[in-house]
Amino acid sequence: MKIYLDACCLNRPFDDQSQNRIRLESEAILIIMNRMNNGEWEWIGSDVLITELENTPDIEKRIYLIELSAGVQTNIALTEVEISRANKLENLGFKSFDAMHIACSESANANVFLTTDDKLLKKAERETNNINVQIANPLFWLMETL
């Protein structure tokens, strides 16, 4: 199983855990990452993900996230192929970083691209016929997968 996690997923455990949804999504992400660390699933990342993590305003969190991203097993470099695909996705209404993440996950032939971004999830649902990767919330995806 090839899994692409966006920056929202990696940041989720740092969010306000007093909200049930956030706490449950954080737990799901930790379970998914544990399976990737155990070699059961493959963690797909990209140069786009690293760039986004490097822009994390909180320095301590940034350092932790960049160290965490060292666990990525397959990194997709941003080439003309991904840039061209991202441009097409932007024309469909996806935000720039989201489009690049989707393009990279498609290039990696990921089984799923996980995000906690509700706007991205809704847009992906509307454009499902124009996307070559499943885009899902980590909690719901994990419940369906296990």
Tags for this entry?
146 residues, alpha/beta, Rossmann fold, five-stranded parallel sheet, 8 helices, 5 strands, 56% helix
Task: Report on this structure.
- The protein is α/β, with parallel strands linked by helices and 146 residues long.
- The chain has a single domain (2-145), classed as 3-Layer(aba) Sandwich (Rossmann fold).
- The chain is 56% helix and 12% strand.
- It has 8 helices and 5 strands.
- Strands 3-2-1-4-5 form a 5-stranded parallel beta sheet.
- Helix 7 (118-126) links the parallel strand 4 and strand 5.
- It is globular, with a radius of gyration of 14 Å.
- The mean pLDDT is 97.
Compose a concise summary of this entry.
This protein is 56% helix and 12% strand.
